[in-house]
Amino acid sequence: MRYSRLKIIFPIGLFIALFLDGSLSNVFAGHLFSYPYTSVLHLVLLWLIFAIFLDDRDDLAIGIWSTFVGLVFDWYYTGIIGVYMIALPLVVYLCRQIKPWLDLNFLTLLMVYIINLTIVEAFAYIWYSMGHVINSNLADFAVFTLGPTIAVNLAIFVIAYYPMRRLYLSVN
Predict the structure, then answer these.
(1) How much is the pTM?
(2) Cα(22)–Cα(69) distance, rounded to whole angstroms?
(3) Angle at 17 between CA 12 and CA 103, to 5 degrees
(4) Where are the transmembrane segments (predicted)?
(5) What is the chain's Cα-based Rg?
(6) How far apart, in whole angstroms, are the C-alpha atoms of residue 158 and residue 161?
(7) What is residue 78's DSSP assignment?
(8) Where are the alpha helices (DSSP H) in the chain?
(9) Residue 26: CA atoms inside 13 Å, Cβ hemisphere, count?
(10) Distance from chain centroid for Cα 146
């Protein structure tokens, strides 16, 4: 019974995060995307990281859900299929590999989230550069996109960590 609740709450939360990624980006576009800085919200990634590390028995099909939500994200938000459809399952795979080696606490999860933000943003940067969607250099990407993206998402992580931890512990 207890894992059936998590199996229902996880996809609902994932699609709420997907919706909020676009909605909050639209509402706060003037602050998130003020030239030359760009801050990309990654609430879907945050929800996936929480699910990987806070699910005790690893019963959730997080890899399949991440592929599906990545496809929806690409299709609806970016219009370029493949970026998040590949990046999100890659992050899920990497996190599942390192999870047994980590002691789960706030700082560890924060560092894992920073590393995964960097992986996803670097993957998107490389993908878009190869597809000639963007033409900025690596230094501009690091200063004007990666830095602000990490800053905004870290603030969201700090605010969301304890409520999300309580949610997962209550349904686990």
Answers:
(1) 0.93
(2) 13
(3) 90
(4) 35-54, 75-94, 106-128, 140-162
(5) 16
(6) 6
(7) I
(8) 2-27, 29-32, 43-54, 62-73, 83-98, 106-130, 138-141, 147-171
(9) 7
(10) 14
Contacts of 62 (CB under 8 A, 6+ apart): 10, 48, 51, 52, 55, 92, 96
- Which of 29, 93, 30, 94 has its CA nearest to residue 63? 93
Which residue from 134, 159, 128 is spatially nearest to 43, judged by alpha carbons? 159
Give how far Cα 139 sits from Cα of 53, 113, 131, 147, 154, Å.
32, 22, 19, 11, 21
Q: What is the dihedral of CA 149, 155, 159, 161, to 10 degrees?
A: 60
Share of the chain above pLDDT 70, in %: 97
Alpha-carbon distance 93 to 119, whole Å? 12
